[in-house]
Amino acid sequence: MLHNAGEWHSATFWVLVVGAALLAVVLAAVACWVARRRSSLAHKLGGKRGPDKALVFQPPRRATAVRSPGSATHYLRKSPSPTTAAPQQPTSPPRPQTPNPPSGATTPHTPTAPNEPTPLSKELADVHATEKIKPIEPETNDGKLGDLHFKLRYENEKSALVVSVVSCQNLPGREPAGPDPYVKLQLLPDKQHKVKTRVVRKTRCPVYDEDFTFYGIAPHQLTGITLHFVVLSFDRYSRDEIIGEVVSPLSNLQLQSGEAMALCREIQPRSLKMRSVGRGEVLVSLCWQPAAARLTVVLLKARNLPKMDVTGLADPYVKMYLLYNGQRIAKKKTHVKKRTLNPVFNESFVFEVPAAPNATLDHVSLELLVLDWDRVTKNEVIGRVELGANGTGSARHHWREVQAAPRRQIADWHKLKE
User: Fold this and answer.
1) Where is this region: Disordered (predicted)?
2) Could you report the per-residue pLDDT of 216-229, keeping only the tens digit for each?
């Protein structure tokens, strides 16, 4: 019995010894891991940090150049400030001495002053050199609109007339970069063949070199054909601006089969004919219904519209905008009347005026635009008139009559303005 009790006490002793050893190993491993963790954190923060030692941060990294995604050799760098001294650059080989250096300038044998800024980097120097040698086109042409260069060739075996739009020279432009010109061409008097060139960006001397072939033209028909060129400047956000036009009849030209004839014509202003003969008039009838808050507009007709081409014809239509506090809130338009300067529309339109049921015409106006329809390019504005309380002349008088006599149709003529 005593022998068994001694064996039990001996086994318990060894178990306790082994457990204490394992516990010591575990504590040593934990202490080692904590020490390594603290050392790693201290290294990231710039060194060991004692209880009385301030936290030390590394200086900020210097900004590096960013590679451009679209180029493998160029970099995008921030330009140095003009008010601060440029950073020190490595010494470059001396430049050859100029024959007559300006006064105060430094030569290769003269040391640079300490407060003098160092030269720009090579990339910035290349940019400045490019800007200096870039040619600047003149912005004014002394009132001239430039010249149009084109070629004519008639192919007898194909019964085809080939017109080559070569280039334009010395076009006017308001912006320093120049207009975005293109050329529109049509054959008169039929106006059935209409073509246009591509747009050449930001230039006053565009080069096109585009050929247009018109088939089905017999030799005896050449004398009755007139080439009508219109030079325009493309505008992405509004209506294209008309620079000028060239009218070239073929009656006085001797076109031989297969031989090209080079011609140059001065571009003439398009608006001179409108200034001399006016833009015409439009007859409008208005009726104001206060209870329903409706304004009825009847476009009756127009007269004495300007000639939009050398045939003396136009394709007019009217576009209407209802304005409330100066903002367009509704629009309508009539049908196109082909080949006439005195169109008759007789079309009625109804506009809903806001702020019902107490709607008035005090903050409402009506804008009328008469346009010349064109199949190829944007339609050209012949003239416009605005009817409202802020109008002038007949437009203001007509509007007051409509306000004073509700539910009555009142018609009046209005002259179109630019």
Assistant:
1) 41-120
2) 888 888 888 889 99
